[in-house]
TrEMBL record:
UniProt source species: Sutterella wadsworthensis HGA0223
Subcellular location as annotated: Cell inner membrane; Cell membrane
Membrane-crossing residue ranges in chain numbering: 12-34, 78-97, 181-203
GO cellular component: ATP-binding cassette (ABC) transporter complex
Family: Belongs to the binding-protein-dependent transport system permease family. HisMQ subfamily.
Protein's UniProt name: His/Glu/Gln/Arg/opine family amino ABC transporter, permease, 3-TM region
Membrane topology: Multi-pass membrane protein
NCBIfam families: HEQRo_perm_3TM
Entry-linked InterPro entries: AA_ABC_transptr_permease_3TM (IPR010065), ArtM/GltK/GlnP/TcyL/YhdX-like (IPR043429), MetI-like (IPR000515), MetI-like_sf (IPR035906)
Length: 214
């Protein structure tokens, strides 16, 4: 097991790289989608609903196959790593959007009306009043979505990206050390995900202590 640890280290680095970029993009997409649905602008709201339902109801593996194997048929070639990042952002954006939208909807209309009476513009009201409280409410589902998306990266081995799952399957196929390989795989995911869970727990306590989550 000690001899193959460097392989798991490399797989973990790829998982972190794809996960970090993909999740940041997913948060950006989710924010735009959630605000579009919150403001209920007719065209944008319809587009946001279509995107959300389409994204959440198609598996990441199918999306990756479309990006990696389908697009080259029409002359568009994307590297495997960027296919994974785009697929993760596309899938994750819809989940982030729903988590953020729930937070936005939880903010009382009394507060937005009070902000407008004080002379704040709609943009200032969103940035200074609505979003801080919405984020506080959305922390638990956002952290859960981040953990879910990192675990979903395991399917990128299907497009030959050497992530943790790819390394594990390769070692099992070559050495038949199934138990040892799986133990290392589980340990690697615990090492990656446990700090995120603890950080999310601490962040949730902090925003509740500050009074945003009440």
């Amino acid at each position: 097991m000690g001899k193959v640890l460097p392989l798991y280290y490399e797989g973990a680095l790829l998982t972190l790289r794809v996960g970090t970029i993909g999740i940041l993009l997913a948060l950006a997409v989710g924010m735009v989608t959630a605000v579009a649905r919150y403001w209920r602008i007719p065209i944008l709201n319809t587009a946001a609903v279509i995107y959300t339902e389409f994204s959440r109801n198609t598996p990441l593996l199918v999306q990756l196959f479309f990006l990696y194997f389908g697009l080259p048929k029409v002359g568009i070639r994307i590297s495997g790593e960027w296919c994974a990042i785009i697929g993760l952002a596309f899938l994750g954006g819809s989940y982030m959007a729903e988590a953020l939208r729930a937070g936005l909807e939880s903010v009382s209309t009394v507060q937005t009306e009070s902000a407008r009476v004080l002379g704040l513009t709609p943009f200032q009201t969103m940035m200074l009043v609505v979003l801080p409280q919405a984020f506080a409410v959305s922390v638990p589902p956002l952290v859960a979505n981040i953990i879910f998306l990192i675990k979903e990266i395991s399917v990128v081995s299907a497009i030959a990206l050497p992530d943790l799952m790819y390394v594990t399957k390769d070692l099992i196929g070559n050495s038949y050390k199934t138990d040892e390989s799986l133990i290392l795989l589980v340990s690697a995911y615990v090492v990656l995900l446990l700090p995120i869970s603890l950080l999310g727990y601490c962040l949730e306590k902090k925003v509740r202590y500050a009074g945003f989550g009440n």
